[in-house]
Amino acid sequence: MAASPGRPPRILLVDDHPAVSQRIGELLAGSLPDAEMVSAMSGEEGLSLAWTQPFDLVLLDLRLPGRSGIEILKEIRTVKPLLPVIIVSSLPESPYATLARRAGAIDFVTKSALVQDLGRAVKSALGGSAMT
Fold first, then answer.
1. Which domain covers residue 53, as residue numbers?
2. Buried (b) or exposed (e) across 44-71, using 16+ Cβ within 10 A?
3. N or C: which end of the chain has fewer CB within 10 A?
4. What does DSSP assign to residue 103?
5. 91: CATH
6. For residue 56, what pLDDT is reported?
């Protein structure tokens, strides 16, 4: 799912740590300067935003208060199956990347990944293809 022509991409960042969301937004601003970043502090808030506003991509943490990121991802998939979701987590890629992809994520990026890795994954998702 690519951003709609004529408008910058809208990215929803779902992470319960405001500093992490802010930093991810800052990192992505370098490669996507026109993108609009919207932050949610919980999975429930993220779902509410996803249902009521148009987004081109969701960056979702696995560890969230209340419900896990996997549960949130599955719910996103039932209502908006074409909305790309990338899991961005402090947990190691193995075995969580496989779990995330089985639940419907198009990619998995660790929070310790290089800025270029996150940027590539986001640009790929916005362009319509998942990273391998």
1. 10-114+121-127
2. bebbebbeeeebbbbbbbbebeeeebbe
3. C
4. H
5. 3.40.50.2300
6. 96
